[in-house]
Predict the 3D structure of the following.
Amino acid sequence: MGGKRLRLRRFFWRGDNRLVLFPLDHGVSCGPVSGLVELSRVVSYGVRSGADGVVLHKGMLACLGEVEGRLPGIFLHLSASTQLGPSFHGKVLVGSVNEALQRGADGVSVHVNLGDDAEPEMLRDLGKVGEACFRWGLPLLVMIYVRGAHAPKPVTDEAIAHAARVAGELGADVIKIPAPKDPEVMDRIARCVPVPVVMAGGAKERDEAAFLERIQAGLRAGLAGVAVGRNVFQHRDPEGFLRTIVGLVHGERAAREAGT
């Protein structure tokens, strides 16, 4: 078994090819937002709730030393921009595959925004990271969105499908996209790339039941799971809600039951 396949098993350890990611990389782009002030506590309840993987920036890997029990898979996030700068959607690399290996991560993640002025540079960086991941056997999560001055407004399902295909074509091992509205498009996305696709949880959702139904619709359409951040760490009961999502994705509860 190659190194990449072995490391991917640390995320897909349940054997059902489904995945719940807990992305906690918001601090660079948005600062210490509500729910993410004490990151060690957040990572700890994410582990207790059964998240299959977390996404962290390099400096926050130190939080893992305070976590008790079995750690989930760790994606080291390599992309950054801030809301304080002139180009929020233009992501730059702030780390490398070699650094991720030396820091003990199980994989790396890269964020790309198609339609931004910096799209060519982000695609170039994705290619470089993908080549290094192939060389060193490290899984690559690609978070890909359609955002920026040249993006269609509103963003269409077809544009999201195009973004997913770009990630698949350029070597992603796992793809994170915003969920298309049309289930048929979700099904087409799941069939047009050879790797698992997870839907982004998105902005904080007031309607909890609708959020869970959206996850269920994605699973029915062939998506592999969800990457959920704000809808967990800004929830009134984040640990309980993440446990509900994990149960839903891994088939332990139906969406209607999960909403009760």
Q: What stands out?
A: The chain has one domain: 3-254. The two ends are 42 Å apart (CA to CA). Residues 3-254 form a domain with the TIM Barrel fold (CATH 3.20.20.70). The first strand starts at residue 19 and ends at 23.
